[in-house]
Amino acid sequence: MNIQENISLKEYNTFGIDVNAKRFVSITSVYQLQQLLKEEKNIFLISGGSNMLLTKDIEILVVHIDIKGISIDRENQDSIHLTVNAGENWHEFVLWCVSQNYGGLENLSLIPGNVGTCPIQNIGAYGVEVKDTITKVEAVEIETGKLVSLAAEECQFGYRNSIFKNKAKGKYVLTSVSFQLTKNNHKLNTSYGAIASELTLKGITNPTIKDISNVVIAIRQSKLPDPKKIGNSGSFFKNPVISREHFEKLQKKYPNIPSYVISDAEIKVPAGWLIEQSGFKGKRFGAYGVHEKQALVLVNYGSAKGNEIYELAQKIQYTIKNTFDIDLEIEVNIIK
Ligand code: EPU
């Protein structure tokens, strides 16, 4: 185990924020992690760094989870059970599944980050959430160094939510995720508007999982900035859920307000629309701003400071509250 000193974390977070790690170590096995935890419990975890906004140098030990490997647990004619180690890149894993004709993750193509963090916020896009395919999560308990296993039901998955953002926050290092995927009779999900229209545009009537993955990649590339070119963390805010009564009031004033019905009493409103209506879309303030094609995404054009982006986020929250009486919740972890 090689503990390095004074390492820039710029390459380790998709926002590309340049902060210093006083001490930094990459971990490549569960055993190594357990050994480390015997010595150090006050640690700062980083994996794909795709859901965090760093606003200051990190004084405690930064532990980069880089445990690789995919194993097949069991399979039959129709399905396969896989366990994937936390440090595998998410999109590369999805592409590999598509190439093997393992179905279930194709709608989640091109999401930045690593496999080990996908359960924390229950990543979701284009009508699919990762919880639909997860069977189990393995993690090392920081306090005891014990390897524990949580069945999907125990992870308390919800929209952009899980036990790892609540009761279990800060308690575990996720080390692997197990999935059940289909080998035949894939359950294709083309319900999301843009997927169906893109497929039609391409003249595809009987899509394969590869077609869906390709279409999702094209849609994402057309709307979302590539973190390798423009730093970002995807959706900065969650889509807020408001009461039907509140929604109907807003609808009178804004007849075009988009919405998704959650239940009789609750309606989800896209945060991107609210932010666009408030005039922030495409606004640039020096080295940071709001993405021009998707207002839900805050961006770092190069040398932005985490605090500058956080202040912009708070300004947006304040404006949305004043204009729509809606509390926008930040989805990204702000490291203060
Ligand atoms: N919209 C606007 N202006 C914008 C952005 C969106 O008016 O700048 C409107 C669109 O016209 C559409 C609605 O908002 O009517 C929904 O937009 P979109 O389909 O782009 O999805 P979203 O609700 O903005 C969510 C996820 C994305 C995910 C897409 C597709 C959240 C917080 N975000 O965005 O997730 O890719 O749906 O499923 O739920 C991510 O988490 O990093 C992410 C990109």
Q: Helical percent range?
A: 10-25%
Question: What is the correct CATH architecture of the largest domain?
Answer: 2-Layer Sandwich
Distance between the termini: 28 Å
Order of helices and strands: EEHEEEEEHEEEEEHHEEHEEHEEEHE
Specify the overall morphology. globular
How much strand?
Answer: 25-35%
Q: What count of domains describes the coordinates?
A: 3
Number of helices: 7
What small molecules does the structure contain?
uridine-diphosphate-2(N-acetylglucosaminyl) butyric acid
The CATH topology of the largest domain: Uridine Diphospho-n-acetylenolpyruvylglucosamine Reductase, domain 3
Q: Which stretches are poorly predicted, pLDDT < 50 over at least 5 residues?
A: none
What is the CATH class of the largest domain?
Answer: Alpha Beta
Major beta sheet, strand line-up: 6-7-12-10-11
Give structural notes.
Helix content is 24%, strand content 28%. It has 336 residues and is of the alpha+beta class. It has 3 domains: 4-65, Uridine Diphospho-n-acetylenolpyruvylglucosamine Reductase, domain 2 (2-Layer Sandwich), CATH 3.30.43.10; 70-223, Uridine Diphospho-n-acetylenolpyruvylglucosamine Reductase, domain 3, CATH 3.30.465.10; 231-335, Uridine Diphospho-n-acetylenolpyruvylglucosamine Reductase, domain 1. It is globular, with a radius of gyration of 20 Å. Residues 125-126, 224, 234-235, 238-239, 258, 270, 272-273, 276, 281, 294-296, 331 line the site of uridine-diphosphate-2(N-acetylglucosaminyl) butyric acid.
